[in-house]
Amino acid sequence: MKKIISSTFILAAMAVAFTGCLKDKGFENHTYGINDPDTQPPAVGFPLATSDKYTVGLDAGSATLQVAENVLFVDIFAGKAPKSDVQVTLTPNDNLRTAYNTANGTSMLAMPAAYYNIPSLTITIPAGQLNATVPINIPTTVPMDPNNSYALGFTISAVTGGYSIPANFKNLLIEFSLKNKYDGFYQITSGTCVDANGIYGGYYPGSLYYDPTDPRYYSLSTQGPVSGLFYDEWFPYANYIVQNLSSGGFANTGIRPILTFDPATDKVASVTNFNNLTQVFTVGANSRFNNSDHSIDLDWTLGRWHVTEHWKYIRAR
């Protein structure tokens, strides 16, 4: 079983700071001050409702149970814990997904009921406590399409104990995106980039704004069960960037590699250009994903460019 734990516990620790603003002017215009929580009408809400949606990353093609914890998480926004249990009722609300898609031009699919289960849509906040949660269980992601993302929407529809439900804390939209094992943040620590024209070369460590105290990395984002798309997270372009050998300036190659792996061997089976899918790279025999440390060795040639690099895995994306 894999547990996917959100940072909600940090938000829960901040609940008292949120509380003092629920009915003052700052609350109404979505700014927050610091007031005495005991002077405010107590309320219940989703801390994660402060964002338009909350994204949970799932391992793609996995038959192992994955559990999203501290996502369906409710807080009592009050300075004092209740003296008796508080029952918070959640109602599925797919309108949140369709509204988000319409507003943002996205195409999140409704999460089929067969793909998940939730022990209860009633969350009990025990007496003496200020929050509680229920897990979202995903038994398998095998039937899910890695090229799609899925969503669940929930509304707090009722609460006992006389607590109010603030409008901007009552709805929570959860997106589930699928990630294969190659997905993650990487740093290109060493390598070579040869330009047949002799004008440009690579720069290593491979990050334009590299600073050992504040590293900025590339990402490889899931494009399918065994494919990942290169993306420069920090440069203004998402493409592969090279350096002028004489001036030191940087140039955009217009290349965003898509790496496709052979799942049986973890070798790179092919590389294509996201920006021009007709461009097919020549791939060296030693290009591969290394299970031992999650790193990638890459050797590819496209037109005037010949690149050999080592990508160090930094962390999950």
The first-level CATH class name of the largest domain: Mainly Beta
Termini separation = 20 Å
Shape: elongated
Low-pLDDT runs of 5+ residues are 8-37
In the CATH scheme, what's the topology name of the largest domain?
Immunoglobulin-like
Order of helices and strands: EHHHEEEEHEEEEEEEEEEEEEEEEEE
Strand content: 35-45%
**Helical fraction:** under 10%
Largest sheet: 10 strands, antiparallel
CATH superfamily of the largest domain: hypothetical protein (bacova_03559)
Number of helices: 4
Please give the CATH architecture of the largest domain: Sandwich
What is the averaged pLDDT score?
85
Total domains: 2
What is the rounded Rg? 24 Å
**Structural class by secondary-structure content:** mainly beta
Number of strands: 23
List keywords for this structure.
317 residues, 4 helices, Lipocalin, mainly beta, Immunoglobulin-like
